[in-house]
Amino acid sequence: MGCKYRVMDRCKAEENKDSLCFGKDDCPYYESEDLNTGRDKAVNRSDTDCIGISEDKLHHILGVARKAYRIAKDMGKDENFCRRCFMLGWIHDIGYEFSKEQSEHPDTSAMMLLLMNEDNVASDLKRPFYKAIRDHGRYPSEMTDEYRILNMADMLVDSRGREVTVSQRLDDIKDRYGEHSDQYLTACDVCYRIGLTAVNMSGNIM
Ligand SMILES: [Fe+2]
Description:
Oligomer: single chain
Number of strands: 0
Bound molecules: fe (ii) ion
Number of domains: 2
Structural class: mainly alpha
CATH class of the largest domain: Mainly Alpha
Distance between the termini: 26 Å
CATH architecture of the largest domain: Orthogonal Bundle
Strand content: under 5%
Helix content: 40-55%
Shape: globular
Number of helices: 9
């Protein structure tokens, strides 16, 4: 799945029954789809090797932000905490714009957050807000409410920003990356770890 034009997205071609992205060079549908709005393309990054933020990713970011806000509300958190959770969702994938590999983006997003407050980097590094962004989709030793809420929201909003069940989200990741991919196995582990699934859907014993 190396095509930077479709990273994180399903193939939109109706004829592509397995729904997997072929990648730009091999995609038989690429040329015709290039003529449409390019909704799923990462724009303005064609001059770099970075993945960039596609329109679908923008919708995902907004969806996760709103979902994180609502999860925090349902947990009985105060309004300021809920709005911070909205910001968690808003920032968590921003690092795609400057990442060359998908695995880099949590670190890049977290580092970009530090750029907003360069005089207090040392204290920001300890904040749950920073850690939740850096650790999303990973296994931190400490699971804070911020980490749980962000990952729950991320696993209940699909790659195009639509609310889905956790099963649908995991199936989508499995379709796009493969049953044995790091992305799918990690997503299964995280969902189990934060209590979204009762069992580890990948069958992994953690
Ligand atoms: Fe992410």
